[in-house]
Amino acid sequence: MKKYNMLTDAPGKSLFFFALPLIIGNLFQQFYNMADSIIVGRFVGEEALAAVGASYSLTTVFIMIAIGGGIGASVVTSQYLGAGLHDKMKISVYTALISFAVLSIVMGVFGFVMCENILLALRTPENILADAILYLRIYFVGLPFLFMYNILSALFNSLGDSKTPLYLLIFSSILNVVLDLYMVLSLHMGVAGVAVATVIAQGISALLSFSILTRRLRQYGGQEDKFVAFRGDMLGKMLRIALPSMIQQSIVSIGMLVVQSVVNGFGSSVLAGYTSGIRIESICIVSMIAMGNAVSTFTAQNMGAERADRVRQGYRSAYVLIFAFAVITFLILTIFHGQLISAFIDSESGGEAFAVGNAYITFIRFFFVFIGLKSITDGVLRGAGDVAVFTIANLINLGIRVFISFQFAGIWGIEAVWYAVPMGWVANYIISFLWMLTGKWSKKKIVSS
Q1: Which residue from 333, 374, 375, 430 could staple onto 365, CB 3.0 to 4.6 Å apart?
Q2: Model confidence over 257-282: pLDDT tens digits?
Q3: What is the Cα–Cα distance from 93 to 220, expressed in whole angstroms?
Q4: pLDDT tens digits, residue range 57-76?
């Protein structure tokens, strides 16, 4: 496959062919995240599936913090690359790795100690509480590996390389599924087995990613005798982007964790069905999120090269791709929704859970275009370093979802949780889009010579 240059090639083609490995890679990532749920749901039972589902919302909070940190690191690194400042680009990579490694260790300790209290506060059903705590404690022991893998993937993307993370994801996905099956079917470890498998698979991938990235950086040359591994001023530039992104990403995830408490109140069967639905949703939005990340990298590199005109061209091209992905997703869910839920839950033995999961994905299939439009619009603002308004937009998105879920669950039932989802996406898109129209993002400049 030809490698398209984001600074010189046609914006639509460069975005698509940069996003394609991201999409494939994220599908593999979702596949092995989903493998945990499928394997415990089919071979351990409905309660084990619910326990993994209850844990998933909490682990997502920590991974979203890693993604937010990766956004800050990747924007600064991309802008240095676009400006041709290779020495500073390399220092920014090492600064990010050191800073976020320390943060991941602190967060892992916090999660290990506090997970039981958090699950209790979220009204996790008693019959799945012990398994959920066990899953989370194993997960948090390996959090530094999972955290750093996400940071490393973002740094590869900032260099215009979305293929290396893809290859590593394929490797870790296959390894994770093999380990899942071995630990659940042969060692009979249940929920603990899928947690251990995830930590091992992403841990090995993180170590391989670090080794490849350090070798890749040597290709850019520079004054190795003046090598610097950390600079506080660069960390400050990253934090200007990373902190709002980390706050936005983590608060949204915390909000979804709060919404999870509404779902928990309906019992473990409804929780199991909801878990299957959101796992399928997470696959459906992969292409949308990948396009947003591609637009962010495209914007950052072209802003570093002072080409705001190309950013506008790329943004228009991204609309075509988003609508195409939305139509494909809608058709797949229309034809195969029942079969997809059946991968998690037996329609006869888990009747209520199956009905809940099926109802969720048949409703949400109409609205994926809005998360795509939100993602590419946020991607322009993020890549330009104009993060304040898009952060506010995402928080409003969160507020709508939490408010509707809590206020109307007693009236509409569990359906209130998913009715709120497209409402939040639409509000987020409109706010970010209106701010983008002001053109103030095009005046931003994060890096300088």
Answers
A1: 333
A2: 777 778 878 887 887 788 788 878 88
A3: 13
A4: 778 778 778 877 777 777 77
E strands in 91-219: none
Domain limits of the chain?
A: 11-440
227 token code pair: 């090598």
The answer to whether residues 103 and 284 touch, using CB atoms and an 8 Å cutoff, is no
Give the span between the Cα atoms of 344 and 332, in whole angstroms: 17
- pTM of structure: 0.70
Task: Give the Cα separation of 397 and 421 in Å (integer).
Answer: 8
In eight-state DSSP terms, residue 155 is H
**Residue 447 phi, psi dihedral angles, 5° rounding:** -110, 160
Distance set, CA 222 to CA 84, 98, 203, 217 (Å): 11, 20, 30, 10
Which of 70-74, 129-133, 424-428 has the highest mean predicted lDDT (pLDDT)? 424-428
Burial class (CB in 10 A: 0-12, 13-18, 19+), 263: buried
Both tokens of 226, joined, read 């003046």
Three-class secondary structure of residue 367 per DSSP: coil
Residue 9, SS3? coil
Q: What is the spatial distance between Cα 266 and Cα 151, in angstroms, rounded to a whole number? A: 36
> How many of the other CB atoms lie within 10 Å of CB of 357?
29
Q: How many CB atoms lie within 10 A of CB 84?
A: 11
List % helix, strand, coil for the chain (3-state, nearest 5).
85, 0, 15
d(CA 86, CA 61): 33
The Cα-based distances of 75 to 8, 33, 380 in angstroms read 19, 27, 11
Tokens of 295: 């637009």
Token readout for 244 is 């709002």
